Every structure is written in C-alpha cells, then in structure tokens.
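Quick one, T. Sequence first:
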Amino acid sequence: MILLINMMFRGLNKINLDSKGRISIPSNYKAILTKRAIKKLICTIDLDNCLLLYPYKNWEKIEKNIMELPSLDRNSRNLQRLLIGHAAEIEIDSNSRVLIPRELRDFAALEKEVMFVGQGNKFELWNYKKWCSLRDEWLTTKEIKLPDAFNDLSI
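Structure tokens:
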C-alpha cells in the first residue's frame, strides 16, 4: 500500500540557481520536509514548460496511476514518455539544496533567477521572467473557464 504524504505546499519564493545547477529549498518548505524526514524528490517536466518537484512518496502514487494508463493508447504512451521518461530522482543535501539535472534545467529554460511555487502536494520551478509574464497574462484574462463541477465555487 502506498501512503500519500498529507502536506500542503503553498506560496512562492524567488530563488537563485547556482553555477552548478543547484537550488536551495526555501526555509518555509525546508521545515516541512525536515519534519517529515523527506530527503528524496522526483523532478520531471510539466506541459507548461516548467518543472515539477514531488516528495518521493507523493510521486509513487502518481507514477503508478500514469503507468496504469492503457499502453495501446498513443496519448497515454506519450504522457508516460514525457512524465516518467523525464523523471529524475534527486537528493536533498545537508545544506537543503538539490541539483536539477541539466536536461531538465534546459527544458524549463531555468537561468539564475527561478520562481519556486508551492502547489499543494508538489512544487513547480519556473524561469522567473516566464513566470512573471504568464502571471501577468493570467491576471488580465477576464474570463476563466472552469469545469461545471466548480460552478458554485466562491472565494
């Protein structure tokens, strides 16, 4: 049985990528990860050209679900190739840094400035300028199309 770790990552932090391709986990998340003794993350690509970082235990369930998709379906195989094929296991070092593999940094066009975004059970890593540009675009969009299940949503 796979136990999904119940934690919520929220908020964003502008961080720096060092010359070796490492990032430091922001302190607000470091405390949660340390408390849960999480030392291993999975980093993979996202269709929005950012990277996803999952605590290893959270990733196991997602990977299982992806691999259970029908193998004769071309879209399923492509999703498996993209998410599973690009998945890299990365260790959190003693200084709370992680090394992002070169191929993944290149995919997301990560440069010195990176936006680290908490997304519930995972993190997103964005090129800082791209994040700011897309955020501004999202904020100027007048109509947000939500699934019918969200018609009664109020914030």
